[in-house]
Design goal:
The protein has about 150 residues and is mainly α. The chain has one domain. It is about 75% helix and about 5% strand. The protein contains 5 helices and 3 strands; from the N terminus they run H-H-H-H-E-E-E-H. Strands 1-2-3 form a 3-stranded antiparallel β-sheet. Strand 1 and strand 2 (about 105-110) form a beta hairpin.
Length: about 150
Amino acid sequence: MNTHPYVRAYLAGIAVPTMFLLVILSGFVVVRLILQVQVPIERIIVFPMAVVPNLFGLWNMLYLRRREHGHPSIGLHGAVLPFILVPLGGLVACSLGFLSFTSSGIVYFVAIHVNYGLLAAAFCIAVGGYYLVWKHLVNFFNGVVGIA
């Protein structure tokens, strides 16, 4: 089954973040509607729902293309993705006005202050998480669609 391998790579790539985003969106709905937290959730959720699955799919297509010229590790390939997503998300958040930088950290929605040390630790955890997600889940879906 060698027909349309890039389409299959894209579909295998978007499967994982789409499932996670459904869980995250459900949590946001509970927080907003049941717990009555007055945070503009629709402004937060738009970027991940629009960009992350598409970027996963495109990133998996790039992995398939790179694999034709050698054998890179899918886990390491996926671990690079936060280095693209975090600056892109920060740029969007700053341009929309709900993220600002201070000398000691970032301020989110003019209410939540997070220092840079915690951000660095969270970023390292995200890179490790992306490594594991790509090594196990995306690789599994690549095998399901026949491109692994």
